[in-house]
Amino acid sequence: MGSNSCLNFAITHHCVYLSPSFSPKSKLHNPNPNHNQFLLSRSSFIPIATSSFALHSNHTLSHPRSKKLPLRNAPNFYVAASAKAEPLKVMISGAPASGKGTQCELITQKYGLVHIAAGDLLRVEVAAASENGKRAKEYMEKGELVPDEIVVMMVKERLLQPDSQEKGWLLDGYPRSSSQAAALEDFGIHPDIFILLEVPEDNLVERVVGRRLDPLTGKIYHLKYSPPESEEIASRLTQRFDDTEERVKLRLHTHHQNVEAVLSTYKDITVKVNGNVAKENVFAQIDAALTELLEQREVNSGSLTA
Length: 306
What we know:
This protein is an alpha/beta fold. 41% of the residues lie in helices and 18% in strands. It has 2 domains: 9-82, no CATH class; 89-301, 3-Layer(aba) Sandwich (Rossmann fold), CATH 3.40.50. It is an enzyme of class 2 (transferase). Its main location: plastid.
């Protein structure tokens, strides 16, 4: 192929390949100095860390938001342009004792997402004496609920941290009301999927009422499902004051009301998971939903590129 001939190109998923002859004198005009470029041998390629580029036979490489930029000695190089996949953004909700904590651990282990729980975040902010933490502490010391706007700001700021943006995030048990969901939407924060763990109320009550805490080690036991290893441990176990049947039913009622309100915001991306099975089977359902989401992204990305 001559140096002035048109470029032959093929598009496969996220990559665009140009395959004219190679010349050691070839140079590539870099439209963005932050992008990494390497001039290699005939059998190698020049990766361009960018996305959504269009190729033209008049030897230009253009981006939809930029002007066409000329490629110097364009016919004499081999180029691959690829787009980095967007990280996952996941919300998960479940009633007390639904197994949400266990599933969050399994999700973060496999997918490497940043696990964010509003309650933990609130305690960290208060301990760090941040501006939001100081405001929250004033309400907590009075025995009052921390206003939504303070918690929403904490969550928003955490979701926008570099690690969350790079790795993706798993937002645990938040939002809990339609107003909190609306506030996140106003900030442009929207999940890819909303996972709801469903467990019958009778089973939830049994799980909660049977829980016991070892004050010495902090380990949680269950009198039926995970009893203590010895009589010595059993003798020192305690029950949380709100793990009684009456209190747990009140908590469940509040949870169900909150979830119904939140689901109205995320109804199109909600996946309901049967949480009344072994934890491995619960995770298998979640894993299948996340895998399907990622595969669909691949298909959509390939269609756009083609």
